[in-house]
Amino acid sequence: MMTAVPLAIITGSFRPTERGKALGIYAISISAGLAIGPSLGGFITSLLGWRYVFLINIPIGIAGLLWAQHIIPELKRQSGKMDILGALTAFVSLSSFLFFVNRFQTWGFSYTTGIVLLVSLVAGVSFLRVERRTTQPMVNLDLFKNLTFSFANISALLNFMSQYVMVFLTPFYLQRILAFAPNNVGLVMTSFPVAVMIVAPFSGSLSDRIGTKVPACFGAAICSLSLFLMSQLPALANSVDVVWRLAIFGLGTGIFQSPNSSAAMGSAPKPHLGIASGILATVRNLGMLLGIATGRAVLYAFAPPSILQKAILKPAEAAVFLSGLRHAYGVGGILTLVAAVTALVRSK
């Protein structure tokens, strides 16, 4: 719920000439949270244990609720009714698909996973039929006839997949290969969101002046370069070797995200800003899960899952594990390289 509406609020509150800048500033808040979170989580885990990490969300959540009530404007409401059947079929289709992706890595293609995938497909087809026939659909499918909107979402999906290949696998490298403590892992991982936080506002402002196509393409290409550099990490790297590679990925992400989000939201008609924002949020979360699944699948193709369960790896096991990591980073680099190409597709 929280991630589905911010882009709609920002797009509806700012002029088109300020949209990129506003989305860039919004990216600062996300990056600040991502920068503080791993370090704070690592510190709490080292000091008190991992269970206490979850309690930090209670005061933060209360503060966020009170501040949101004070500051967020109420946008003009649309008349109409909720598309309950469309929402239900979409929920069943997406949740079944995500469950299939999650379990397929452990169970393989079995009777259970086959049924879950079939349920997802049937619900997905039903969702499309419902949305075409209802007078007030939850998702106006005509949005996807706009090339800018469709390809901006494809670019976001691919970039977030590559991002979560990086985010998911790098802590394993730091812990299993370099033997870093949890708090040090958090500090190293912070270099990625800090770089995003610094670059995103400038990238958003630039896209207001020169358009969204070039910055989005350039940013995704830098992300690809970073992942290919990660695939060359040696077994005896130090924290600096990892930090500057993560910072390059953050640089690319900061350049990519604001212009790409601006392109998608700017191509949506005002009555559909809410659903456009929701679609981007869905694509983002789907990309995260598929990125983790992709990184894990490639890693397991080279290193057996039993290796991940060991706290200390023997030299031979570390070599196998590192080989899997390198191939997974390479696949992530290809994903966001494709995102650089799809980012170039825009409607006239």
Number of domains: 2
- How much beta, percentage-wise? under 5%
Distance between the first and last residues' Cα: 33 Å
CATH level 4 superfamily of the largest domain: MFS general substrate transporter like domains
Give me the CATH fold name of the largest domain: Growth Hormone, Chain: A
Please identify the structural class as seen in this structure.
Answer: mainly alpha
Question: Would you identify the regions where 5 or more consecutive residues have pLDDT less than 50?
Answer: none
The total strand number stands at 0
Mean pLDDT: 86
Largest sheet: none
CATH architecture of the largest domain: Up-down Bundle
Shape: globular
Give the helix level as a range of percent.
over 70%
The number of helices is: 13
Radius of gyration: 21 Å
CATH class membership of the largest domain: Mainly Alpha
Q: Would you list the SSEs in sequence order as H and E?
A: HHHHHHHHHHHHH
